[in-house]
């Protein structure tokens, strides 16, 4: 019976079976990937280079951009290379690395979005305590906790997945090594193992989701009590981008992982995987810069800057 160590490679799901559509997929993903690199790169450079943006909110946004760059770089380049070279394979170590990195970065992103909700809650509901509760040391500790919890989450689930023997073939029904799809290849009845993984993930992620919802419930109550229209608009403008990013991230992930098995199919799973793994890293910079004048001014200053 072959186990995970004796399997040398996996076969990923193709986006298309004709050469023309494979090249179309390559160019489409290349455009999305370059947009993600440009958008997140601009935010990272702008926040790091502009001392006026050295505040907790933008420090967390800097971390979010790093996570988005890592997440999209884990899956998209390999998928592009497979389409360009007309191949489907990924090595066993490469697949394990994809599972670990993707789980690490996506989990850390959810934890960081939870921290960012807390940041907005303190800024609007407890403004007099903002400097105390979110000092530079506290911000570093919270960001490090988000990265560290994501790392531990990834270690747990990657070790769980690749400790199983695989004997149901090596064809993964996804365009990257996604943990639930890998578990379907296990020799043992993976229902309880897969259910255990799902229960742990759902419990932790649901706790983060509830925290975000409760935080924004308090935020909206506080904003609606602001007497001036200008004050309410300013408060909402700092919260809506984060709320939009959270909604996109959580909704696409929930649809992908909690949909009924009766409607599941390889093509639908692939589309949903693109929606939660490829689209958010590309559009998050646009969401944050669209209504944030400081980010737009910083990017404009960065673009027009010329060395003397």
Structure explained in plain terms:
With 308 residues, this protein is an all-alpha fold. The chain is built from 11 helices and 2 strands. The protein is 75% helix and 2% strand. The protein has a two-stranded antiparallel ribbon with strand order 1-2. The relative contact order is 0.14.
Summary tags:
mainly alpha; 75% helix; two-stranded antiparallel sheet; 308 residues; disordered N terminus; 11 helices; 2 strands
Explain the layout of strands and helices.
Elements: E1 9-11, H1 19-49, H2 56-85, E2 89-91, H3 92-125, H4 130-133, H5 136-162, H6 179-183, H7 191-224, H8 229-258, H9 266-277, H10 279-290, H11 293-304
Antiparallel strand pairs: 1-2
Helix pairs in contact: 1-2, 1-10, 1-11, 2-3, 2-10, 3-5, 3-7, 3-8, 7-8, 8-9, 8-10
